[in-house]
TrEMBL record, chain A:
The chain crosses the membrane at residues 12-29, 34-54, 66-88, 157-174, 205-228, 240-263, 275-295. Keywords: Amino-acid transport, Cell membrane, Membrane, Transmembrane, Transmembrane helix, Transport. One of its GO terms (biological process) is amino acid transport. It is found in: Cell membrane. One of its GO terms (molecular function) is transmembrane transporter activity. Belongs to the binding-protein-dependent transport system permease family. LivHM subfamily. It comes from Azonexus hydrophilus. It is a multi-pass membrane protein. It comes from the Bacteria. GO terms for cellular component: plasma membrane. It holds the Pfam family BPD_transp_2. This is Branched-chain amino acid ABC transporter permease.
Automatic annotation (TrEMBL), chain B:
The keyword RNA-binding does not apply. InterPro entries: ABC_transp_permease, LivM-like. This is Branched-chain amino acid ABC transporter permease. It is a multi-pass membrane protein. It is found in: Cell membrane. Keywords: Cell membrane, Membrane, Transmembrane, Transmembrane helix. Its main location: membrane. GO terms for cellular component: plasma membrane. The chain crosses the membrane at residues 27-44, 51-70, 76-96, 103-124, 130-149, 156-175, 181-199, 230-250, 270-296, 308-335.
Length: 309, 358
């Protein structure tokens, strides 16, 4: 029983990390109808910027104030993500308004290549550590409840906490601030939003910037866990089933979807994996999402798709 | 002046329903095929065959298959690489497990196996649409990546995980030299291109297009969405599967599951979008673009760097390639969202009037 609960909790925490990446997809899809395949590249790009700026700032500060170096690096990486968002809107999205979904999807793949290339040209292509002082040691909890207690990775726990805070902040941002309202209006109907005086282009820059910041946070957490390297870009592939399971247009969906996928992956790997040779995590997540989609084609919390002739 | 249909009167229904109704088109296509069979073997050298022409032919076949599904039936798929893998591994198993299996049958059976799996993975398309479906098709991709890596039966328990097939021959004619491989692939692609062209003109192709344009409306006028969508998945996977088998057997010789990774799927979708959705010719344009561009960049970039006195490292070149490749894709999507095939049809319109302005 203890082992089961341990797996379950591990899955929930992994799920929070997936939802963090999935959030970026949802934000951009909501506001511009673009299915952003570049989200993985953005995570890599942001994490690379963060890792290198932190290294450089640390050297510049004489190496004795890691915290300050990290803060500087965070803001510098934020600025880089803003520039990226602005360039993407200016050079790509503005010219592709009203195109089909497939075309936009391919355009974001093109953006992904460019980001990967530029990121590695500027920041280098080796494995870089991100050290933001995340505790690495596991803790044993609930020893009175289960025999031997439950081992929880402190790092995962903090990461899940950060993800939860981020979601709360985003929810407040979307519901309560004028900018958030403008974003929701644009997501609802481009033309109507424009006709009441909301500037579409600026809104898109903002939403890509917010998605960039989410990517930055995801990149820091994943990066401090795995090290910043090229394979970080493939995290997006792990987050895709989360997005379609939760619904492309729903922020809570990304969270709930992430938790379901995280738990499903871990449980399947532990209990089903040994029978078929292991390594089934990735496709199991997709199959799980597929099964959900067969019953709810718009995802768990997505907007209902209504067809009219 | 030259490209005109004036004076070409159709007196029978048969004449009216030919593939190429304009005589100039017919001559042009026959000329291209003749050039491909006779001219290119005389002109091209071994490197051209191996690095450009053979991959181009096989990937055009795959792109053709993807185009039938994405361009004609409107079902976006990101799992094409998986169906190439299924075709390749199924053909491999047919070849080694059945004694004396003729090569062509082996390849076609590989395609059939892929078509079967295509129907299976196409079932979600009956409920799920658009981008949700695109992501759902990734399930096929990751499942196949895993299956061919972990389940030993498919690779005949080869220790290294890579499989190979040797001594290809058709009717006693050994396919060894690049030229023979090229001609072998060319025969396939010519036959399949005509099959695809005719399918899209026939009732099945019209059903696909009706589904693409609006599936609810198509259903209202009596088209069965299940039949139309699943047949599109089956035919498309068959094409892609045969292409995958050719890719493994003829181009690579020995291969691993990584040869058919998700990047391959993206590449095929790129070919369709850049070439032109819903265009047979576009598949060829797209394949040519995607095959030639990386080779071109690989050759030109170091030379260019040398010209300005900058020595670029190998890693730097591969990053620069990524950047240029990505930006060119975005550029093409912006200037011509309907693909290279659209440029071709604009050129044809212009040619019709030439040399007069109106």
């Amino acid at each position: 029983m203890g082992f089961f609960v341990e797996t379950l909790i591990g899955g929930l925490m992994a799920g929070m990390l997936y939802s963090l990446v999935a959030l970026g997809f949802v934000l951009i899809f909501k506001a511009s109808g673009v299915f952003n395949f570049a989200q993985g590249a953005m995570v890599l790009f942001a994490a690379l910027a963060m890792a290198r700026f932190s290294e450089w700032a640390n050297i510049a500060l004489g190496g004795d104030n890691l915290f300050l170096a990290n803060v500087i690096a965070f803001f510098a990486a934020g600025v880089v993500m803003f520039i990226a968002a602005w360039a993407i809107e200016r050079l790509v999205l503005r010219n592709l308004v009203n195109q089909e979904g497939a075309t936009l999807l391919m355009a974001t793949l093109g953006i992904a290549y460019v980001l990967e290339g530029i990121g590695q040209t500027i920041f280098g292509s080796e494995v870089y550590p991100i050290n933001v002082g995340m505790p690495k040691d596991p803790v044993i909890m609930f020893e009175s409840l289960f025999e031997g207690g439950i081992m929880i990775n402190k790092e995962d726990f903090i990461a899940a906490l950060i993800a939860a805070i981020l979601v709360a902040v985003l929810t407040i941002f979307f519901q309560k601030t004028p900018v958030g309202r403008a974003l929701r209006a644009v997501a609802d109907d481009h033309q109507a939003a424009q006709s009441i005086g909301i500037p579409l282009n600026r809104t898109w820059v903002i939403v890509w910037f917010v998605a960039g910041l989410v990517a930055l946070v995801a990149g820091i957490i994943w990066g401090s866990k795995l090290g910043v390297q090229f394979s970080l870009a493939t995290v997006a592939m792990r987050a895709l089933p989360v997005v379609i399971l939760g619904g492309l247009t729903s922020v809570p969906g990304a969270i709930v979807g992430g938790l379901i996928i995280g738990v499903g992956e871990k449980l399947s790997e532990v209990y089903l994996g040994p029978y078929v040779g292991g390594g089934i995590e990735i496709w199991f997540a997709y199959m799980l999402a597929l099964v959900f989609l067969l019953f709810r084609p718009q995802g768990l919390f997505g907007e209902k798709i209504i067809d009219r002739v | 002046m030259i490209y005109r249909e004036n004076g070409q009167f159709k007196t029978t229904y048969a004449a009216d329903q030919q593939i190429f109704t304009i005589a100039q088109d017919k001559v042009f296509v026959l000329g291209v095929i003749a050039f491909a069979f006779i001219g290119i073997p005389l002109l091209a050298d071994e490197y051209m065959f191996r690095a450009i022409l053979i991959p181009f032919l096989i990937l055009s076949l795959a792109a053709l298959g993807v185009n039938l599904l994405v361009g004609y039936c409107g079902q976006i798929t990101l799992g094409a690489g998986a169906f190439m893998a299924i075709g390749a591994y199924a053909a491999y198993n047919f070849m080694i497990r059945i004694d004396g299996m003729p090569l062509i049958f082996g390849l076609l059976l590989g395609g059939l196996a892929s078509a079967g799996m295509g129907i299976l993975f196409g079932i979600p398309s009956l409920r799920v649409r658009g981008l949700y479906l695109a992501v759902a098709t990734l399930a096929a991709q990751f499942f196949c990546d895993w299956a061919f890596l972990r389940l030993g039966w498919f690779t005949n328990y080869s220790s290294s995980g890579s499989v190979s097939i040797s001594n290809l021959s058709v009717f006693g004619w050994g396919i060894d030299s690049p030229l023979e491989k090229y001609l072998f692939c060319l025969c396939f692609i010519v036959v399949f291109a005509f099959v695809a062209k005719n399918l899209t003109r026939a009732s099945i192709g019209r059903q696909w297009m009706a589904i693409r344009d609006m599936d609810v409306a198509a259903e209202v006028i009596g088209i069965r969405p299940m039949w139309a969508k699943l047949s599109a998945f089956a035919v498309s996977s068959f094409f892609v599967g045969v292409a995958g088998a050719l890719w493994g057997f003829v181009h690579l010789g020995s291969w691993e599951p990584a040869a058919f990774s998700v990047d391959r799927s993206f590449q095929l979708l790129f070919m369709v979008i850049i070439g032109g959705m819903g265009s047979i010719l576009g598949s060829f344009f797209g394949a040519a673009f995607i095959v030639v561009l990386p080779i071109f960049l690989n050759q030109v970039l170091p030379a260019l760097g040398h010209l300005f006195g900058i020595e670029i490292s190998t890693a730097g070149i591969s990053h620069a390639e990524l950047i240029i490749f990505g930006s060119l894709i975005v550029f093409f999507l912006i200037v011509e969202p309907h693909g290279l095939a659209r440029l071709w049809s604009i050129a044809k319109e212009k040619l019709r009037l030439w040399p007069f302005p109106h």
